[in-house]
Amino acid sequence: MQAVRRRRPPKVRPEGIEQRNNFPSSLASESFLENENCIYNLCSNISRYPSTIIKDMINKKKEFHRFFGSVIQPYHVPTLAAKSPINGEDKNMCPTQQYTYFPEIALNRNRKKMFIVNVDKFKQAVSFETCVPKANCFLANHKPAGYTTACKQQYNLIRLVSMTEHGNLTLDTFPIPSSCVCTYRQVIGYT
Q: Where is composition skewed (Basic residues) in this entry (predicted)?
């Protein structure tokens, strides 16, 4: 008896989630070097950003409209002065810088370059905090003997409406800086 081969049905995507468009890829020419336009793999003010194509696509795809606005921003928990044991303002253990970016190109969680939809009334603001480069933890000189400290960048994954190099409009996941923490570890060989 001969086995019957079954054909798998084709994968069907939900209607309207992706749209194909034929445009030349300009992603390869963009660099992710840290400069005034790029920080932590988020770039804005891109010279070859396909804004007209993106505007046309996003205007046709109403199901994506609800994703626009301030995507992520820091939240500071209110404190009660009466409960604080120390008068004054709380300080971070590591110095930080605050940014609000409207990225046009970013690396997704798979390290693939993607165009981010940021045109006209369809903006995605990303506010984040980064470690000041080469900064030490507060009170680093007072750490226990045999330990070293360092300020380390932390990340969150967020979803942004984006377009691939093939012209697909999609919702993808991107690592975004979230906070800076002071870490410590024991020095190897210290006794």
A: 1-11
| Interval 22-55: pLDDT, tens | 333 444 444 555 566 888 889 999 888 899 988 8
* Per-position DSSP letters for the chain, written without gaps between them: -PPPPPPPPPP-PPTTS---------STT----SSSSEETTEE-S-TT--HHHHHHHHHH-GGGGGG-EEEE--------GGG-SSSS----SS-EEEEEE--SEEE-TTS-EEEE--BTTB-EEEEEEEEPTTPPPTTGGGSPTTEEEEEEEEEEEEEEEEE-TT--EEEEEEEEEEEEEEEEEEPTT--
Contacts of 39 (CB under 8 A, 6+ apart): 99, 101, 130
pTM of the full predicted structure?
0.68
Maximal C-alpha separation, the chain: 85
CATH number for the domain harbouring residue 170: 2.10.90.10
Number of domains observed in the structure of the chain: 1
Domain membership of residue 165 (yes or no) is: yes
Residue 85 in any domain: the answer is no
